[in-house]
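tmp note - Alpha/beta hydrolase
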Amino acid sequence: MTIALTRRTLLTATLAAGVAVPLSTGPAVAAVTKRLTLPRPTGPHRIGTVAQRLRGGNGRDVMASIWYPAADDGRRYPRAPWMPAASYHALFASVDLDAAEAPLTAGLLGAPPLPAGEGRPVVVYSHGNNSCRAETTIVVQELASHGYVVATVDHTGDGYSEFPGGQVTTPDDEEFNPWNSAYDVRALLDHLQRLRGPLGATIDMRRVGMYGWSKGATSTALVMNEDRRVRAGIGFDGEMQSQPRPTTIDRPFMIMSAEFPRSTEESVEEFWQNLRGWRLNIQARGAAHSSYIDTQWLIPQIAPLIGMTPEDYAAWCGTLDPGRGVRIQQAYPLAFFDQHLRGRRQRLLEGPSRAFPEVTYLP
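out:
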């Protein structure tokens, strides 16, 4: 499918996938082949991952990935790519891909799951506009390394995906409503509930959380409005705009603000006032819209390859240090789900932390 991408849409997808694309009209920069990297997760478990096809919202087929603690020693199974090759190239059909290769993940393809006794808590993820399910792999790997089963889904029609057999799908021209993403996630929850075998045996569907970035944050709220299986949710800098908008939620919810804080985005303040359960709103000083996803780590690797200007760098990473951004991505979602899905009190969620001086806890 041929699509017309805006500059911001192209860059959002490009940076999330770890591909270099020129950001300025200055002198051309010679191509340099480099494989980008992702930070290692901090948990004790090795990670396995499998991709699965399922029927999503409105009868559309969607691709999903399931990440989980693995029993393998890491020598028998290959590391999963950040994104399948064909959809990776489709994402940037008009862009030279030689400057940088997308990173490999810590996930071992098809590795057997580590037995879990009573079952592991589950977290599902909804991606942003015109993107892909891989955009928060840093967070996904962190959760899985600490004992969670994490499932991510490509919203067919609002992103780039590859199906078994090589079929590649790209965003449709029409506007994609966050409700469509919410329907996909509910279908994903149904799929997880039906899973059997060793992987299905590790899942505890009584302890389910969800998070999303940008449009996916809105989808997280919408799913929680409709589906009681989701006990706790996080929104990464979402505008919370949909028709109809999210309504009252009586379960825990954390907002991680950046460019769309409550002070300037009316829809987020309206959503905040509709939260009737445990709630927390934090904001990292200097964070940009993409600072809570993989972009914050990948951009610094891409910048020297393409001669990125300081202005363009700041537009994508803000002034938040990339390493600090990664630690925020790893620490806060893990603490939130540990407290609300595992019942483990987390002092990190109770107020300003010396370990994270750049994070403000908003009243």
